Amino acid sequence: FLPHQIASLEQVDQTYIMVKPDSVQRGLVGEIISRFEKKGFKLTGLKLFQCSKELAEEHYKDLKGKSFFPKLIDYITSGPVVCMAWEGVGIVASARKLIGATDPLQAEPGTIRGDLAVQTGRNIVHGSDSPENGKREIALWFNEAELCQWNPAQAPWLRE
Ligand code: IDP
Ligand code: MG
User: Fold this and answer.
1) What string of DSSP letters covers the chain?
2) Is 4 marked active-site?
């Protein structure tokens, strides 16, 4: 085996990352994209998008019974979001660590929420919580034609 062939045998997962409307309004889009880009993950889909109430409700369907659900849907549909599909080995758990705890006051410094947000209801970014949900959410927010399969030139410098 050549080193790049060994790496290719590892499980590559996908995660759906979304810059929420508050971070678009606050001018944090570049900052948030940059955290994932600098880490070394591969971007496979990216768009600015105004989502419908129906799509927001489908995305957050597991939270339907919660008291904050109506406010959550208002928040997510209050302005454009930036939808992103990212790919990498171990990406789902790693992206959740980069994002930090749901409550930004509990999120560690160095994380996106820990550095840039103060309240759960304005916690600026979404990340899928499992590889299954990563696939589900990417399929929900993107058409097949909006996703790019490509080989970043830096790949051999990121993984041996
Ligand atoms: P996560 O985004 O860290 O995965 P979840 O528990 O999946 O957190 O909740 C989804 C989103 O719902 C949160 O990111 C936040 O925007 C919102 N949310 C969760 N809990 C509360 C709450 O107690 N009050 C207001 N909004 C909440
Ligand atoms: Mg969640």
Assistant:
1) --HHHHHHTSPEEEEEEEE-HHHHHTT-HHHHHHHHHHHTPEEEEEEEE---HHHHHHHTGGGTTSTTHHHHHHHHTSS-EEEEEEEEETHHHHHHHHH--SSTTTSPTTSHHHHH---GGG--EEE-SSHHHHHHHHHHH--GGG------TTHHHH--
2) no
Q: Residue 120 domain-assigned?
A: yes
What does pTM read for this prediction? 0.95
Question: Tell me: the pLDDT tens digits for 86-99?
Answer: 999 999 999 999 99
Establish if 17 belongs to a structural domain: yes
Domain that holds residue 87: 3-146
102 assigned to a ligand binding site: yes
Query: Ligand 1 mean position to 102 CA, how many Å?
Result: 6
Taking ligand 2, which is a single-atom ion, which protein residues have CB atoms under 5 Å away? 129
- Respond yes or no on whether ipTM tops 0.90: yes
